Amino acid sequence: MKNYSQKYAASIRDPEKFWAAAAEGIDWDTRWNRVLDDSDRPFYRWFAGGRLNTCYNALDRHADGGRGEQLAIIHDSPLTDSQRSITYSALRDEVALFAGALACHGVGKGDRVIVYMPMIPEAIVAVLACARLGAVHSVVFGGFAANELATRIDDASPAIIVSASCGIEPARLVEYKPLLDQAIELANHKPRHCIVLQRPQVQANLVPGRDIDWNDAIASATSHDCVIVDATDPLYLLYTSGTTGQPKGIVRDNGGHAVALHWSMQNIYNVEPGEVYWAASDIGWVVGHSYIIYGPLLHGNTTVLFEGKPVGTPDAGAFWRVAAEHQVACMFTAPTAFRAIRQQDPDGELISHYDLSGLRSLFLAGERCDPDTLHWAEQKLGIPVIDHWWQTETGWAIASNCLGIEALPVKAGSVGPAAPGWDVRALDNNGNDVRAGDVGAIACRLPLPPGSLTGLWQAEDRFRRSYLDTFSGYYETGDAGYIDEDGYIYVMSRTDDVINVAGHRLSTGAIEEVLAAHGDVAECAVIGAADALKGQLPLGFLVLKAGVERDSDEIAAETVRMVRERIGPVAVFKTAVVVARLPKTRSGKILRSTMRQIADSEKHRIPATIEDPAVLDEIKIVLKSIGYAG
Ligand code: COA
Ligand code: AMP
Fold first, then answer.
1. 570 alpha carbon to ligand 1 midpoint, in Å?
2. What percent of the chain has pLDDT over 70?
3. What is the pTM (predicted TM-score) of this model?
């Protein structure tokens, strides 16, 4: 553990020296005055005074520096039965032209641009074009409903929205344009224009005067050069679930982000520039931002953009086909994808159909990885399988076995030791470190390393309340777990109302807001119950208003439809049940975590403050009737 220990200790002892060295991996227009500006604690700024352009670092310096003919992107799309490869030179040219198109329509430094697109190269082009102009992109995942998009439009107030006519799911086409039109209708803020890429599968109707066909936009544009911005200027906003229906707009800067992601490619993932790296995620999530787009491109790797699923496109061998065909050196996905593959190919028979000799490591994140899934992947692939832990907020791994520094022993169930830069603690309610092995709230001592969030978009108070107020001098992760004697971290659960469904982060509070809007519902509760495939699934409990005599199954089915319409299919909200009462404390707090423990057949203590313990028995009977609670 010597290399790791030394590097880690150096990063904590003298973060400025550590990250100044890492910053040499980035091309700067102007070097920084201070590596870490701590003049406004608890807000910290990395590389203050430094100036750069992130798109220049991701594309131009490679295109002009000997990697022009190397592939930047391989788009592999079993859903359209097509592939497209783009070199660094060609990608730079496409991005410069699209940046010109955005500029033509008035987008400049600091303006927000929402990107609502499926997994196609043009989505990356749009994102990097924003970075080129110093505009702030905000990508919205395609599985969200119009209402969620509208909330983000109102919060980010974009000048322009870039979209496509459709996304493609195995069983259906997802027409983006009607969702986009509905979202703009719902939102108070109206974008000046929408630039829409027409995919061959669906022709979208364009609104005259507002909507512009992607091809027309670039036909009349000229290439735009990189606009130099401050290291501390925002690069992007990415919305993630909090405890309410109002998502949090995570703000990422330019300088710290470029430094941290570039550093992580070698030190965490152990890949060399020129190698092929594949994050099988979606550009709508932070993993997609960091490791489909920015990390690999900043580091001169080839990135794979996969428009398909781990199973069903066409079979459970899809990942192995892609890894073999494109000579992927390092791969990253969510445990749920492996559980899906294993369910369909329990012996991993399809793995043997492909030459995976080039694949050196597999990284997993996004949700807790059960040891069983980890062992299965290790045995079937015969390579290191690394569970690592991070959040939309942190932008890169808080904890990981850093293969580029030193391959440490893997402990199943653990996300590895803290990554350099992260001073991770398990704390009790008073903010004191708990003993090794005891569960506490996981928090990170400030300052956080470069690349982590600099704030919430126009919500400084919420930023403080959500992350900084509970433990003075720490960032509260919202995760609970323990740290063992060797410093390995075990992330066990959330301390808030966030649940994780198929590696997607969702707010039970947001689902409850939708259920509560049903005219017959008096009160409700949503919990995340364990699911063998997706990790967790949301379950809704409804108490009806007095006097409602309609069929309860019908009401439950209506709420299921409402969640799909208002949050989106990605919530996978399929089960709601009507109950007579909800279990509460005497002060009226709903006992969601006790309900979850009952659903998952876990041991639970009946809280001393419970209003009426008999309600828990009623809930248990209902849970049993739908296949939970043992
Ligand atoms: N656009 C529109 N709809 C989408 C979508 C998108 N980008 N992604 C998912 N959906 C839809 C699905 O079609 C499905 O709709 P349905 O109810 O009509 O069937 C619904 O949202 C639920 O999707 P999901 O939970 O992903 O289930 P699935 O059955 O389609 O796929 C897995 C299951 C395990 C294969 C898939 O969840 C997966 O690959 N997960 C990995 C997640 C990941 O990469 N997370 C990022 C962190 S690394
Ligand atoms: P997101 O912001 O969508 O990336 O979700 C972050 C949350 O997912 C974390 O706060 C954890 O609750 C969970 N998570 C991510 N990676 C892991 C992991 N490797 N092990 C356990 N939980 C994880």
1. 6
2. 100
3. 0.95
For domain 4-308+388-481, give the CATH superfamily: ANL, N-terminal domain (3.40.50.12780)
pLDDT recorded at residue 245: 77
Are 48 and 37 spatial neighbours (Cβ–Cβ below 8 Å)?
Answer: yes
Q: Is the CB of 335 under 6 A from ligand 1?
A: no
Mean pLDDT lowest among 60-74, 187-201, 288-302, 585-599: 585-599
Q: Which residues pair with 540 in a beta bridge?
A: 526, 576
CA distance 10 to 133: 36
Ligand 1 atom closest to the CA of 141, numbered from 1: 7
Mean pLDDT of 25-29: 98
Q: What percent of the chain has pLDDT over 90?
A: 95
Q: Please check whether the two domains, 4-308+388-481 and 502-625, share a CATH topology.
A: no
387 lines ligand 1 (CB under 6 A): no
Q: Which ligand is nearest to the CA of 311?
A: 1
Q: Is pLDDT at 50 greater than 80 in this prediction?
A: yes
Tell me, what amino acid is at 72? A
Buried b (16+ CB within 10 A) or exposed e, 177-216: bebbbebbeebeeebebbbbbbbeebebebeeeebbebee
Give the model's pLDDT for residue 1. Answer: 62
Domain coordinates in residue numbering, the chain: 4-308+388-481, 502-625
Pick the closest to residue 478 from 459, 511, 453, 515 (CA basis): 453
Residue 95: count other Cβ atoms within 10 Å of its Cβ. Answer: 28
Question: How big, in percent rounded to 5, are the helix, strand and coil portions of the chain?
Answer: 35, 25, 40
In this prediction, residues 147-168 reach a mean pLDDT of: 97
Residue-level pLDDT at 271? 98
Query: Using a 6 Å cutoff on CB, does residue 366 contact ligand 1?
Result: yes
Atom of ligand 1 nearest to the CA of 167: 1
Q: Give 494 Cα–ligand 2 centroid separation in angstroms.
A: 9
Residue 440: CB within 6 Å of ligand 1? no
Question: Hey, what's the torsion of the CAs at 531, 505, 337, 526, to 10 degrees?
Answer: 20
Ligand closest to 492 (CA) is 2
DSSP-derived letter for residue 401 is: -
Interval between CA 147 and ligand 2 midpoint (Å): 25
Position in ligand 1 atom list of the atom nearest CA 170: 13
> Burial, 603: exposed, middle or buried (Cβ in 10 Å; 0-12, 13-18, 19+)?
exposed
Give every CB contact of residue 225 below 8 A, 6+ residues apart in sequence. 96, 132
> Residue 235 pLDDT more than 90?
yes
**What average pLDDT does the structure give for the chain?**
96
Q: Please name the residue whose Cα sits nearest to atom 15 of ligand 1.
A: 569
CATH number for the domain formed by residue range(s) 502-625: 3.30.300.30
Query: How far is the centre of ligand 2, averaged over its atoms, from the C-alpha of 241 (Å)?
Result: 12
The separation between CA 489 and the C-alpha centre of its own chain, rounded to angstroms, equals: 20
Q: How remote is the CA of residue 401 from the centroid of ligand 2, in Å? A: 16
Indicate the pairing of strand 361-364 with strand 385-387: parallel
Please give the distance, rounded to the nearest whole angstrom, from the Cα atom of residue 390 to the centre of ligand 2: 6
CB-count exposure of residue 259 (10 Å: 0-12, 13-18, 19+): buried
155: which 2 tokens?
A: 């919060």
